[in-house]
């Protein structure tokens, strides 16, 4: 059975902090994926069951984050940001900071980090990933980011600008991603998002 896929604008998603149950529901409802994606689903759910503070960045071992695969639906180009803290090309994203509506987190972070108005976030989540965050500047201790990732679509002819969190940005085609040395999780997320977009032309 095909999943029910919805495109939500900023006015359609909650700005009120959610809770762990809402976050867990988003993780359970994420689209199916390869074994590493499914392993991340189980790891995130177990973490949520053990840590009532999992939505807060003060949770030392790790915390939930929300990411956005920002795509121009006309060209199918993906927006990458050169992250200032880790010195790698990554998707927009950030801490939940108590917000259990992880689609809202992804949309908020994408808007803040790209400067693009009129973005649409697609639900359900397309990818799940657990990775160790390492601050290249050595200012933060290593910890886990339990990342729930959504496809986010731009309006026509959108132009991006970066904020203080990124040093540069690039619009990249799928076949060009390897040239930016993105990690395997980013590649997996990009493939999942583009496959979803191609399977649902009504989203364009």
What does this structure look like?
By secondary structure, this protein is α+β, with helices and mostly antiparallel strands. The chain has a single domain (about 10-204), classed as Nucleoside Triphosphate Pyrophosphohydrolase. It is built from 4 helices and 9 strands, in the order E-H-H-E-E-E-E-H-E-E-E-E-H. It has helices at about 20-30, 35-50, 100-115, 185-200; strands spanning about 5-10, 60-70, 75-85, 90, 95, 120-125, 125-135, 145-155, 165-170. Strands 1, 2, 3, 4, 5, 6, 7, 8 and 9 form a 9-stranded mixed beta sheet that branches. A hairpin with a 4-residue loop joins strand 2 and strand 3. Helix 1 packs antiparallel against helix 2 (about 35-50). The chain is globular.
**Ranges with pLDDT <50 over ≥5 residues?**
none
Question: What helical percentage do the residues reach?
Answer: 25-40%
Quick one: CATH class?
Alpha Beta
What is the CA-CA span between the terminal residues?
22 Å
Radius of gyration: 16 Å
Map the helices and strands.
Layout: E1 6-8, H1 20-29, H2 35-50, E2 62-72, E3 77-83, E4 88-90, E5 93-95, H3 102-114, E6 120-123, E7 127-133, E8 143-153, E9 166-172, H4 184-199
Parallel strand pairs: 2-8
Antiparallel strand pairs: 1-6, 2-3, 2-5, 3-4, 3-9, 6-8, 7-8
Helix pairs in contact: 1-2
């Amino acid at each position: 059975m095909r999943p029910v896929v919805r495109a939500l604008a900023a006015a359609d998603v909650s700005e009120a902090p959610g809770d762990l149950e809402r976050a867990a529901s988003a993780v359970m409802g994420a689209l199916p994926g390869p074994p590493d994606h499914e392993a991340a689903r189980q790891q995130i759910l177990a973490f949520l069951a053990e840590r009532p503070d999992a939505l807060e960045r003060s949770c030392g071992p790790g915390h939930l984050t929300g990411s956005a695969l920002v795509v121009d639906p006309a060209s199918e180009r993906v927006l990458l940001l050169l992250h200032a803290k880790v010195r790698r090309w990554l998707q927009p994203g950030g801490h939940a900071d108590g917000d259990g509506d992880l689609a809202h987190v992804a949309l908020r972070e994408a808007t803040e980090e790209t400067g693009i108005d009129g973005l649409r976030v697609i639900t359900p989540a397309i990818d799940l990933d657990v990775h160790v965050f390492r601050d290249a500047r050595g200012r933060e201790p290593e910890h886990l980011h339990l990342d729930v990732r959504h496809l986010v679509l731009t309006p026509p002819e959108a132009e991006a600008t970066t904020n203080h969190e990124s040093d540069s940005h690039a619009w990249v085609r799928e076949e060009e991603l390897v040239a930016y040395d993105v990690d395997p999780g980013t590649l997996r997320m990009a493939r999942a998002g583009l496959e979803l977009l191609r399977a649902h032309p009504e989203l364009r």
